[in-house]
Amino acid sequence: MIENEWIRMPDGRRLAARIWLPASGGAAPAIFEYLPYRKRDGTAGRDETTHRVFADAGYACVRVDIAGTGDSEGQFDDEYSEQELSDGEAVLTWIAAQEWCDGNIGMIGISWGGFNGLQLAYRRPPPLKAVISMASTVDRYADDIHFMGGCLLSENANWATQLCAYLTRPADPQLRADWREDWIARLENVPFSAVDWMRHPTRDEFWKHGSVCEDWSRIEAPVLAITGWADPYVNAPPALAANLQVPCKAMIGPWEHSYSHLSRLDPADFHSEALRWFDRWLKGKQNGAEDLPAYRVYIQEHFNPSKKYGPRVGRWVAEQSWPSPHVNDRVLFLGSDGLKDNATLGTIAVSSPAHIGQTGGYYCPGMRIDNELAEDQAADDALSTCFDTAPLTEPMELLGRPKLKFAFSVDRPVAQIVARLCDVSPEGVSQRVTFRPLNLTHFASHESPQALVPGQVYEAEIELNECAHRLRAGHVLRLALSTSYWPLVWPAPGNAVVTLHLENSTLHLPIRTVTEEIPPLDPGPPREYPKLQAQQMRPASSTSKPHTLEDGTVVLDTFDDFGQKINPHHGMAVGSDVRMRYAIHPDNPASAIFESQWNFTYQRDQWQVTIKTEHSMSCDPQHFYLHRKVRAIEGLDEIEVFAREWSETIPRGLL
Question: Where is the Xaa-Pro dipeptidyl-peptidase C-terminal domain (predicted)?
């Protein structure tokens, strides 16, 4: 293992890499992972479980910090920027030229690394021969943490606060003599990302950059796309399998936002899946990877949903091709007495208190320690307008993206609607199967939304997120509609009444019917893998406390202490924690508030730094208000070396 190697960019900047080489020596294919999360400490524990295994299997593994992060030089500008991607191409060229590389390179990554693996494949650098992309997106506007269905996600602010905290961390003094000068420059130039992203509320060129769905034909490297049902990034794997013109296989298990061998939800053998893919496309082994089913998926069934991690119920199935001939559209009609086989006349009003959504869970499970999964939806269902089927007389299996097509009118120029599909047991326990919001001003286009004329009738469609679920006989399929879904979705500026016109409102279900299953080739349990033997100084812990203030404001306070550990390779002790608060009054959507505080500490011998960041976002019917504060403290005597505050006001427009 080479603890640090400098890779020089064409303009002279150096990016920091950690490298694992096969013990056998000689030229080998390489696996490249490219992140802003600090190879030295941030992902060191995870890297031990992946790259060391791949090096043992005959691959040179290269883990690189993006410019301006970790130990790399330069300044960070934005996620998936032209600088990041052009630097990535330069790194690929550098790797291919090393004596220990045979010129064949694969990219691997989850989330950020899953994104830029696809994005670099889109640019067609010659050395890149295969990609494994986990928990990623093909459309940065439609399926990321910023917007969904044209609605602003509260995760836009939350992720921006986390990224800001990440970007304020210094390079390691053991590797960078200029660490302090560079650290101050990072602090002074840290982007106000939430503001930058909110200045692009429609699907403009900003979001099209890095969205590989703009031209599927540009990706020429074979892609293995993986995610989990507890992860928010569920739409990309089947979309890639359906649209790429090169070998592509999709897999969705029960997992959260995590490499599957590290999942707290039925962990699986990720290593064998990855090595089979890379062995085929980087080593040329005829191992049948190209003959795998197009879509392997864990079909879930009803379990006792809880915000805490626990076992799932379901089974693995496979579809040889995707889209599959085994999935057909079934149409149900929205009626005053539920979901029916025939259309009915009339209207139904949907209007919800602003705090509905308290059982929806954390947007991206896997980022916190615990207390982050969707719970029993019954409390939110009670505040929603619900359309139920009769109890099923036989099981119903869903695989794909349900669609809600509906006609509506509204009493305000800006409004939103959120659709949830739930599996309701005979005992009344409601388990969310899938959901998706729609900013109704986007009824015709995410590129050119328009203010709504009160009373005018419009038609819209919501393609809910990908799902795979089997409802048992006796259970009820429920469509729950609401005009808010806090705290996942930032609410519209006022309490709207959305009137559904039932004669033109239908639910389209992707019903899977198979008489004979093919072997699902499920990944099986994880193999043994190495673990970083870090010394734990403080254990991790997590709390989640919903409560209501005297004036009726509904509050969710969360705290995650990620603990403190000492890295055995270089002796640095790293600790971090985060507090978050979401608050809203049920009668006033414009009362929504998000606040967070991130703290990091780094220490080795007499060297110590502490970074404290505070963020808040609030609104009124016309504007969003964002504020942040960053403090940096150096030395055991805790001298403040940097303190700055920023405030921004953003017009709401049609959000």
Answer: 275-508
In this structure, the chain runs to a length of 655
Token code pair at residue 221: 């490297």
Cα separation, 96 vs 119, in Å, equals 19
Q: What is the pLDDT of residue 60?
A: 98
Distance CA 325, CA 85 (A): 38
The Cα–Cα gap between 445 and 146 comes to: 17
Count of H-run helices and E-run strands, the chain: 10, 32
Q: Number of C-alpha atoms within 13 angstroms, CB side, residue 519?
A: 5
Q: Are strands 128-134 and 223-228 parallel, antiparallel or unpaired?
A: parallel
Beta strands in 311-426, from DSSP E residues, in sequence order: 314-319, 327-335, 338-340, 347-350, 385-388, 396-400, 403-410, 416-424
Contact 570, 3 (CB under 8 A): yes
User: What rounded mean pLDDT belongs to the chain?
Assistant: 97
Beta strands 403-410 and 458-463 are antiparallel
Q: Which residues contact 363 (CB under 8 A, 6 or more apart)?
A: 145, 153, 154, 155, 158, 232, 488
Coil/strand/helix, residue 647: strand
pLDDT of residue 426: 98
Q: Tell which residue, 245, 243, 246, 375, has the closest CA to residue 310.
A: 375
Phi, psi of 90 (to 5 degrees): -65, -40
Nearest C-alpha neighbor of 381 from the set 358, 403, 365, 397: 358
User: What are 153-202's pLDDT values in tens digits?
Assistant: 999 999 999 999 999 999 999 999 999 999 999 999 999 999 999 999 99
The mean per-residue pLDDT over the stretch 431-458 comes to 98
Reduce the secondary structure of 453-490 to three states and give it as a string: CCCCCEEEEEECCCEEEEECCCCEEEEEEECCCCCCEC
What pLDDT score was predicted for residue 317?
98
Residue 437: cis peptide before it, omega within 30 degrees of 0: no
- Give the pLDDT of residue 636: 87
Rounded CA gap, 609 and 603, in Å? Answer: 7
What local confidence, expressed as pLDDT, does residue 311 receive?
87
